Amino acid sequence: MVPTIFPTCPNPPRTSRHVMMYYSRLRLLGVAGICLIGVLLCLPNFLNAPSSSLPWRQVHLGLDLRGGSYLLLQLDIQSLEHDRLQSLQDQARQALLDKSLGYRDFQHDDKSASLSFAARSDAELASDLEAMKALPAAVPGEFTVAQKDGRIVLALQHDAMLARAREAVAQSIEIVRRRIDATGAIDPSIAREGDDRIVVELPGVSDPERIKTLLGTTAKLTFRLLAANPNEAGPGATMLDDEETHGKLAVQDHVDVDGTALTNAGAVIDEQTGGWAVTFKLNSAGAQSFANVTRTNVGKRFAIVLDNKVIEAPNIISPITAGSGQITGGFDARSASDLALLLRAGALPAPLSVIEQRTIGPSLGAASIHAGVISLGVGFLLVVVFMVLFYGRFGLYADVALFANLILMLAILSLFQATLTLPGMAGMLLTLGMAVDANILINERIREEVKRGRAPLQALQAGFERATSTIIDSNATAFLAHVMLFVFGTGPVRNFALTITIGIITTLFTTLVLSRVLVVRWYALARPKELPV
Amino acid sequence: MLSRPLFRFVRDDRRINFMRGRHMGLIVSAVLSIASVILFFEPGLKLGLDFRGGVVVEAQTPAVADFGQLRTALEHAGIHPDTVQAFGSPRDVRISISAPQGADREAQTQKLVDGVKNAITQAVPGTQVLRADAVGASVSSELFRDGLLALGFSLAMILIYIWFRFEREFAISAVVTLILDLTKTIGFLAITRFEFDLVMVAALLTILGYSTNDKVVVYDRIRENLRKYRTMPLRELLDLSINETLNRTLGTSMTVFLAALPLALFGGSTLTGFATVMLFGIVVGTSSSIFIAAPLLLLMGEKRLRREVPMTSQD
Q1: Are A366 and A355 found together in one domain?
Q2: In this predicted structure, what is the pLDDT of residue A16?
Q3: Of A169, A358, A471, B118, which has the fewest Cβ atoms less than 10 A away?
Q4: Closest partner residue to B199 among A383, A391, A423, by Cβ?
């Protein structure tokens, strides 16, 4: 059966064996519509929005193209564990005191993330165990309680600590955002990665040194009294570095007021010394505690501790009840304003450290865009010329489809506001090179059928039919491989895999539908006696 | 002008006797692959920053770069670079430092990158930092693991696909051919000293995908012909199949080659290596379809192949 070709056949006869050789008006409109939508979706990348109410979605240029910095921050889980052990120890002591149970030799071991103590007597072991099990956990199953060689051992659990790390990362992202916003960086992107990492992308920031310093500071501010003997660590006191004298000072572990009570901070010039200082203001609860401590400890030294370093330890001359104060500690303009910024933004729940940095200067970014666009243009042109020279009219149709392919790829990337990097552009170009494979397969097949003496229509039909499974096959392999690459890959590889994966989808449309429509329409209108193959 | 193609790679009635060169093809391929495996161990691949960790700073000096001066400035700042070398124009300099060792190495790596930037901008005022990357040891080992995982999983997908797509004899020959392709590409990487990094993993995979695609087309034609010409000697049949698909094979490899060529020429430092390896892989993948994949089938033997392909009556 040879189906007759009418461009607008209202009810095309369908047979399962034959590839469609006619397209209803609706179908043609559909194909044209998809192409038109593709063009429209691409427009935002080249034009300014005519009205703010229009959804104007653009492809984001990757940092390698626009210039900027990428920082990968790692949350210090060990410090989180250390802090938790510290508070757990306080809780445990308090619980034992409340039940009037005795304890000896409290030890805490950061390596195994555990803490242990000896019972006063073996008779109390059971009650000790009971009391420890009753301690409130921050997250379910946070720690285990066991008895070993007459000692009670509390061990933090890794999974629970990971859960806490995730929580800490969520808090940190907020604080990191506030700190970065305060530096005036434009359009930063801050996102979690994995359990304990944060990715920071700073477009246009070609010197991230200051931001690295800001993010590398935990900014945990505490006000604590010095130990009775400031030269020796006793029970409940720790030796800390003293920034003023570069010596060491014993400071009580008990925190009287901490940075969470701060409502504001600013850099000012100290009227007495003429140097820079940081003023702070406390909320009412903080002001209350501050007043209480200073009232009962007049004459003693009160240490201002930032990230386990004593900035200064002035004498309390008189009770401070106003809920505000001033830190002087050898600041210059930059360090005073940075500290004020950090205090305003709040402390990180645990230290962050930069473990990967990638910075692209603006000139290299511009050069990369240039390289990408030139390569894309030249590559596209070479393929287009090749196809016309080697496949004539059908090659030209393949080229039209190829152009549509490029538009559709860009359209999908714009629609999802995806990022485009230099490897991504390479992926687009390789997609274009591979895409015409489908046209080549079809054309070669049609040519063979013609050589075998088939009439033009049957030759076209046979060509499309036989090539289709091969085309789907070869694209399926590439699709699977690149989806895997996208899922397991990182960084530049992901973007490359993404554009290729999108490209395979658009290729199936442009080669199996669009270029076929072009050929079929041409055939229907021209009714050639011979095919140009 | 468009009524007919202007060029063809080979005339349609041309019958090249490829199978005559089959032993030569297999021997050359085996030798190259063995040499590549040796090169993989000695001198080995040059790992890129992604996989080895450390610091790379690329900068452009206002005048022709004075490497001695830069090196001295760095040494003065207590930084001992592994290499200070030119790349691109004579004004461009690339400073590379391997990851520091020791307990505090992550923080040290990050300090190094700022140290290098400060040292060179102070030594040569007006120097522009083009790129400053610092990858900590933990990250680089993870990237390496992830890169191999990505490569492994993608490779597994390709193999599973081949397994389902072909009968056993075809699948085995295809996989053997792909392994030969892959080893040669790795050998090429070892010789050219292009850095093996994440982008290169993507290149290897794309080459494998392309090569698989090429084998699918040739094998499909062989299977079709096995059904069609049931009495034709296998050797003749393989030659016929290769010749029939030759224009397509050369055409597609040409378009992919043309697409990758500008990347190799204008792609800049990031993509030159990637694209050059791609170009090599396209040549290898195309020639292996003809000279390796088909002769391997001939080695498998006619009987087994004909048994594998069901004898349906058609044409």
Answers
A1: no
A2: 41
A3: B118
A4: A423
Q: What pLDDT is stored for residue B2 in this prediction?
A: 65
What pLDDT score does A472 carry?
A: 86
Q: Do A482 and B154 touch (CB under 8 A)?
A: yes
Q: How far is B57 from chain A (nearest CA, A)?
A: 9
In a domain? residue B13:
no
Distance between CA atoms of A198 and A191, rounded to whole angstroms?
A: 6
* Inter-chain residue contact B150 with A64, CB threshold 8 Å: no
Residue with tokens 């004004």: B91
Structural domain includes residue B5 = no
Q: Are residues B118 and B227 in the same domain?
A: no
Last residue of a domain, which of B135, B160, B179?
A: B135
The whole-angstrom distance between B30's CA and the closest CA on chain A is 26
The pLDDT tens digits for B156-181 are 888 888 888 888 888 899 999 999 99
- Please list the rounded mean pLDDT of every run of 10 residues in chain A (533 residues): 43 47 83 94 87 84 92 90 85 86 82 86 84 84 86 89 89 93 90 92 90 90 88 83 87 86 89 87 90 90 90 87 84 88 89 93 90 94 95 93 96 93 92 92 91 90 86 84 86 89 94 91 86 82
Q: Give residue B52's identity as a one-letter amino acid code.
A: R
Cβ distance of A379 and B263 shorter than 8 Å: yes
Q: State the sign of the Cα–Cα–Cα–Cα dihedral B45, B48, B49, B50.
A: negative
Q: Which residues of A touch B254 (CB under 8 A)?
A: 386
Of B113, B114, B271, the CB nearest to A426: B271
ipTM: 0.90
User: What mean pLDDT is reported for chain B?
Assistant: 88
Q: Which domain holds residue B95?
A: 54-135
Q: Which residues of A touch B220 (CB under 8 A)?
A: 470, 473
pLDDT, one tens digit per residue, over A258-288 is 888 888 999 988 888 888 999 999 999 999 9
Closest-CA residue to B50 (of B231, B233, B200, B198) = B198
Question: Do residues B148 and B246 share a domain?
Answer: yes
| pLDDT tens string B244-255 | 999 999 999 999
Residue after which a domain boundary falls, among B112, B135, B158: B135
